[in-house]
Amino acid sequence: MSAATLLRDVFGFDGFRPGQQDIVQAVTDGKNTLAIMPTGGGKSLCFQLPALVRDGVTIVISPLIALMRDQVRFLRENGVEAHALTSGNTEDETDAAHAALRAGSCKLLYLAPERLASNGAQHMLRQIGVGLIAVDEAHCVSQWGHDFRPDYLRIGDLRRSLDVPLAAFTATADEETRAEIVQKLFDGQAPETFLHGFDRPNIHLAFAAKDGPRAQILNFAKDRRDQAGIVYCGTRAKTETLAKALSDAGHTTCHYHGGMDPDDRRAVERRFQQEDGLIVCATVAFGMGIDKPDIRWVAHADLPKSIESYYQEIGRAGRDGAPAETLTLFGPDDIRYRRQQIDEGLAPPERRAADHGRLNALLGLAEALVCRRQNLLSYFGETPDTCGHCDLCDKPADVFDGTQPVRMALSAALRTDERFGAGHLIDIVMGNLNDKVRQWNHDQLPTFGVGREYSRVQWQAIFRQMMGHDLMRPDAERHGALRMTDHARPILRGEATIQLRRDTIKAAKSGPKVKQMVSEEDAPLLSALKAKRRFFAEQAGGPAYIIFNDRTLIEMAETRPRTLDDMARIGGVGAKKLDKYGAAFLEVINGEAEALHPARQKLAGRTEGTLYDQLLEAQADLARGPEGTDKPLSCSAAQLAKVASQKPRDTAALERLIGAKYAERFGPAFMDILHA
Question: In degrees, to the nearest 5, what angle opens at C-alpha 167 toward C-alphas 164 and 169?
Fold first, then answer.
């Protein structure tokens, strides 16, 4: 039976959506396939239909149990023999799946990627006659993508082992993510690729700077009463407090996050699917498995972490094609938090730099000068006309020629060797003569005080827009120091101009003072130290505080020890931890670790360490005798450490420690040091 006939007879659709038919044909023909389709574009049918046409079982690898259960239920209600093997199965469900596989009646078998780690599962898959592998949410294979799942990396091995075609599907994948999907799933051999438009024209896009964010969300929900909506929050605690505020305002509301009991999470998922007009305040844990067609709005109470995440999350609205609305709030604290998440990650510097670039792209969308949809779709490589259906098309932004302040900021960065963050650069252009500016003599720079016409919060808004234009990125290896990108060079040289939004600069104001663990300048270093701490904690299989507590890391970030002696004076750094971790944390702080002999390292931070260094220096002066003509002679590091630790009172005691030959040459100099 043809795919078109099955589409009508089994699923009840008269025709394919745009782009579906070509993908279905390629998968049915057994071609390795990668399809990037917009959220709500009908990805599932693109592997479900070929599964019914082709011989054998189609394995569907999907990241969420809720998503698998919904699809299995949908298929079975349409008369298709489909099963899932998940940790959420009842015993009867698992028995029924195995019985169908033995009987050869199962057409689609859904698995979580984590199950591929089991030898039993791999053996079972080799026995059941797999004809096709379908990978849903394929961006999870990519460490560049926004939902990295390491178990997805086993799928390429499974494809090679079973020697069957593979079809991968995702709604969001930029060029780097697509390249990694091809490498990991298809061994670098380009599959048949379908890249369909990302536009969801029924969704109205809007951003707003935070200005009483709880009231902003409550007002947005008030105007959409009794409509199903999702409010995405940056923290678990906020999902609960915001859900209560909405409930108190008369909305039917519940919260959802990964820390909840699994039964409670399933109850929320069930309520959301079944109840009309329910609002869920959730972290991103509430996401991929949600396929409710009539979600009328999505709000972000906090800035998402990337454009891919933003697109995926707003894409849950309006899947029925009817009008839907979005609102995304953003503020300086969001951006600081997202930067911190990147800096505290264990990814190598080049990946962290790319993630800062992705965050810059999202800031560019938040601070866009013209049509949001143009900005969003251009990120995915499309060049649409203005949409007439976003907040900036509704009310154009107030823009001005911002070349002069941008050049001031870039010049300050260049003249300070791109070694400092936004806070210090703002102090320079504003002419703030503080201790750090004095320490570096930056009050002598030509750019000192050239930007006094703007307040500090306005300069912060200017820097935020500069990031949005990707003119500067935090340097992952310099703990938040801002480094210019190639886009900045023409502006600095006077070869290009740049437009900024006057409205966001005028509206910039100080919000409530958020208590920071360290200063703005030290925060990136603290994040890097936390990342190193987590690396050791994961190796040890214990909690992070066992390595060093937060207070110790804060002191490291603020004092920036340069030597192991300095490090040993930090509170919480004992001898054993200094020996085990000192060099690694010094390397984070200074870019390199001090090389010390183990005998000297044991004396770090003690007066004996200083004595050791003085004895070593005296020994070097006398290595060839007082006249520099004798045979070279030197004590071992262990001997010097003994002298420094025991501090012999006289030459005889010194001789017992290092021997007569050494005492004869070094004795007088050593005793002078010991008795000084």
Answer: 160
Q: What is the 3-state secondary structure (H, E, C) of 7-33?
A: HHHCCCCCCCCCCHHHHHHHHHCCCCE
Nearest to 133 by CA among 154, 148, 103: 154
Q: In sequence order, which residues have a C-beta less than 8 Å from that of residue 264 and are 6 or more positions away? A: none
Reading across the β-sheet that carries 130-135, which strands appear in turn? 82-85, 108-111, 57-61, 130-135, 166-170, 33-36, 192-195
- Using H for helix, E for strand and C for coil, what is the string for 257-271? CCCCCHHHHHHHHHH
Tokens of 648: 């012999």
Cα gap 329→299, rounded to integer Å:
8
CA distances from 216 to 213, 222, 229, 613 (A): 5, 10, 15, 63
Helices (H), 29-64: 45-53
SS3 55: coil
Model confidence pLDDT, tens digit, residues 233-268: 998 999 999 999 999 999 999 999 888 888 888 888
CA atoms within 13 A of residue 493's CA, in its CB half-sphere: 7
CA-CA-CA-CA torsion sign (370, 374, 380, 381):
negative
Angle, CA of 531, 63 and 351, to the nearest 5°: 30
Classify 499 as helix, strand or coil: strand
Domains, the chain, in order of start with CATH, read: 3-195 (3.40.50.300), 203-346+355-394 (3.40.50.300), 399-507 (1.10.10.10), 523-595 (1.10.150.80), 607-674 (1.10.150)
Of 407, 460, 452, give the one whose Cα is nearest residue 428: 452
Contact 288, 146 (CB under 8 A): no
Per-residue pLDDT tens over the stretch 57-114: 999 998 877 778 878 988 988 889 999 998 778 889 999 999 999 999 999 999 988 8
Which residue(s) pair with 130 in the sheet? 57
